[in-house]
């Protein structure tokens, strides 16, 4: 049989299953029948009843113009399908081609379309979310209950989140003459989706319509009365609002959890697809029988540099469903890409807002027509000098013109096409509040493009080892570890990894993720830290540089570490850390002085990043005047660590290489100058010490100093940033720390367990065949130790996912274990204790601007790249 015959047979008798029976699912089913598919069609949906339309739910249904039951999607044709409704799909087995349902049934398929969309992000405290009067709006039932609550005439409605849905709901409230307060963490409404310029207009509009708009604040708690009815909201700045309805409009969560075991590349940002809507598996291979469409899909678009884009737009769901359906029943040569330019609309406060393109994919914005003051205008968005999007307020007829500009990559700023030229035509920075906030509340997520990032995701490639095909781990584990979408919350992945404590990977390496096994490996003398022992050693990272003791084994490691320790801690230098106390307090204090009055601070850039270099320079005895150069070198080295040859300018790598050379040279000169001049700094002490192990060679001193600068940098930055983030997420603990300063000691310990800076030790090598948890790891294999997973192992720690600074039994893996146990642990602890205590003491009502914040690409040293916080009244 030819493939044309196969396709004909499939179109006649094949089995197609659609999971997610709403807009995208229904439109795809109709298109499949239009395309001539006569085989069996099964529609699986967890909601009961006819597919219905969602946009009216936050508009006409809430005003009462349209009953919730009157939103059924019009049927374009009969689809002759079997409907399995009211039960969710719980799994997808690609090997046997079955969809599993939560009630145990299995539905076979030849091809499957996934269109499970998104759900509303619930209020984060379950007991508060359950109060009577607290709502979200995603389904018909949600809208129906909220409309009833609005009809009952509440004294005030609180809307939490001023994205599109929240703003539309606030608009409905004002239309119904209901007092409404809108609370938004960003500086203005719609900022996450449309940027600061439109945010200002939107804020204006809301206030002009009588909305009590509060921006830059976070709702910390919802309070109920004795009957379990919502009564009051508490803000993080201490203020409160009394209301009897709260609508939580904090964006959405993609419905992908049911695909966790499927082997598909499905996660926080959706299901990764190619432009033909075919889903990718975890290894990045295109599947040919699994397709995705609608809000749950994440596709590349060549107009946007092939970035993967997730859209929560009605028009996108329809168009993508039609392309997916076509491709499901077409020969390879006839398949179509889904390349249309996104379109979106919203109606609020009497204004028709429309957008074309991807406004978040922009660095500048300009008003091209009309005037924002009149709420009738068009703005164009540009990225690197070309038009990428446009947004109109009450001027939608012009969007087609801008669509053509986007399609042809027209230069930005574009000329004004009409006589209503705005007075000011100067582009301004688009100014999104921060990528993470943007990703949470916005309806467009350019998931792998992050305008605020200094670095981009490192692409980790592994070639499968010839002749070895078996693996004990889930395929694609390494890719999942390295996948940036897991960075904000890698802990569910770690929980999965722990099911196979020692997992062999496709490339022959091993991932170890449980506490006991990690500790065993760290203390096993058969394991080496010298990458030269790998069966395929990598090229040395730095030409001509002496290796550092973190990459050495006994006895050489022990000799160098012993020599360095003589000047770094007990028994010979017991007072090192306590002696630095005054300096640390002053250094921390002066960094806080620099930012104390500012409303917005980046805890990473403004505070945590400069601190460790200051401290290590002091420790080494680097002259004051050389310090600025050390800051620049460490910065360039750190930047080059995540270099990605595909997306980064080569300059970034070159700068790192140059910085290493310059740093080495400068340290070499400093060491030379130290000979015969005993001083307090470590360089001088090492250069003049004739201890039991003899004198350290100059090159070894330089290597040790470099090691301290690098090993003690990003780790401390991350611990401070992760610490501040965790405290802001646990306001009660933050308050306790203010009241009981001594809490900082166990608190930092718990941070090292709960949100550690080092998630993975990526290098250990088996000297000879070693057995770990009954698995024989062959000589020369690379072993990755998942420290952060071990520190969350429920077999070792009680309630491990709880942040509990009162935890007593807390032997975490934050500093590793065995002969390489962190050399700088005591210093890192004290540095962080002082930093956090002072931040908490001196910042005025700090609150997060984005949660989760944007993370650095690295899964190894994990921490936010920026941690923007606001303070003061805001
Ligand atoms: C209140 C509101 C207002 C909106 N306003 C606008 C607007 O003005 N303009 C605009 O462009 N867009 C708007 N949208 C967005 C638009 O409605 C969506 O883009 C569209 O609904 C996406 O369709 P979908 O089929 O991909 O996903 P959905 O409509 O979310 O459908 C997914 C379906 O899959 C089901 N499902 C999930 N998991 C499973 C499972 N495991 N098994 C079985 N079934 C499952 C879900 O329950 C749901 O029925 C709005 C959305 C909402 C909620
Ligand atoms: C919170 C901050 C820190 C964390 C979480 C941390 C974590 C770690 C970990 C996990 C290791 C073990 C690596 C391995 O086994 O291969 C390690 C080793 C090391 N750390 Fe740290 N570290 C921190 C801060 C520092 C500081 C401030 C310094 C120095 C000033 C430092 C210097 C070193 C050195 C030299 C080693 C190598 C030890 C050896 O090989 O014997 N670290 N660190």
CATH homologous superfamily title of the largest domain: Cytochrome P450
Radius of gyration: 29 Å
The portion of residues assigned to helices is: 25-40%
Going by CATH, the architecture of the largest domain would be: Orthogonal Bundle
Number of extended strands: 40
The number of helical segments is: 27
Structural class: alpha/beta
How are the SSEs ordered, and which strands pair?
Elements: H1 3-13, E1 15-19, H2 23-34, E2 40-45, H3 60-63, E3 82-85, E4 89-93, E5 98-101, E6 106-108, E7 111-114, E8 118-120, H4 126-129, E9 134-135, H5 140-151, E10 157-160, H6 164-175, E11 180-184, H7 191-194, H8 196-208, E12 212-215, E13 219-224, E14 230-235, E15 240-242, E16 245-248, E17 252-254, E18 266-267, E19 270-272, E20 278-280, E21 286-292, E22 297-301, E23 307-311, H9 314-328, E24 343-348, E25 351-357, E26 364-371, E27 376-383, E28 386-393, H10 399-407, E29 428-429, H11 435-441, E30 444-446, H12 477-482, H13 491-497, E31 502-504, E32 510-512, H14 515-522, E33 527-528, H15 556-565, H16 576-595, E34 600-602, H17 603-608, H18 610-620, H19 627-641, H20 650-674, H21 682-688, H22 698-711, H23 714-729, H24 731-739, H25 744-754, E35 765-766, E36 770-772, E37 775-777, E38 783-785, H26 787-790, H27 825-842, E39 847-848, E40 868-870
Parallel strand pairs: 1-2, 1-7, 2-3, 7-21, 9-16, 10-11, 10-16, 11-12, 19-22, 32-38
Antiparallel strand pairs: 4-5, 5-6, 8-17, 13-14, 14-15, 18-19, 20-21, 22-23, 23-30, 24-25, 25-28, 26-27, 26-29, 27-28, 31-32, 33-35, 34-40, 36-37, 39-40
Helix pairs in contact: 2-9, 16-18, 16-27, 18-19, 19-20, 20-21, 20-22, 21-22, 23-27, 25-27
